[in-house]
Amino acid sequence: LLVLTPYPEPVTAKIVETLRDYGVQVVDAFGLGISGDIEIGQVSIERLEGFAAEHFDRERHDGVFISCTNLPAAAESLGETLGVPVITSNGATCRRVQRLVSALASA
Fold first, then answer.
1. 30: left (phi > 0), else alpha (psi -120 to 50), else beta?
2. Residues in contact with 66: Cβ distance below 8 Å, sequence separation at least 6, in sequence order
3. What is each CA distance from 98 to 48, 89, 92, in whole angstroms?
4. Which of 24, 29, 51, 88 could form a disulfide with 19 if both were Cys (CB 3.0 to 4.6 A apart)?
C-alpha cells in the first residue's frame, strides 16, 4: 500500500504506525509537508493527482490510501488513472458508517 498525506513527515509516520498496528502492509508513505488546515483545504485535485503519480510504482503498490478528510475527493478518477484501488479517509469513514447503520437496522 502507498500512503499519501498532506502532512509533515512526523504526522505521516504516525499514520503509518497506526495502519501497521492494524495489520496493514504499508510499503511507502509520503506527505506534502503541509501543517495548516486552510492550506490543506486548498490542495487542488491536480496537485493531489500529480503527487500520487510522482510516488506511485505499479510494481510496488497494489493500492493507495489518501489520508485526510480535508483533501479533495479524487479517488475515483485517481483509481482509474493508476489502475489500482484508491481509498480516502472520507470514503473509508462513509463505508464504516454504512456498515454500522445497516447493522443497527437489522438488529
1. beta
2. 4, 5, 48, 52, 74, 75, 78, 86, 87, 88, 89
3. 27, 14, 10
4. 24
Per-residue cell: 73: 475527493
27 DSSP assignment: -
Residue count of the chain = 107
Q: What is the DSSP letter of 84?
A: S
d(CA 90, CA 100): 15
Q: Of 90 and 39, which is predicted with more confidence?
A: 39
Secondary structure letter of residue 12 according to DSSP: H
pTM for the whole thing? 0.88
- At 105, give phi and psi (nearest 5°): -65, -30
Three-point CA angle 27, 31, 33, nearest 5°: 160
Q: What is the largest CA-CA distance in the chain?
A: 46
| Averaged pLDDT, 48-66 | 94
Give the integer Cα–Cα distance in Å for 80 and 68. 20
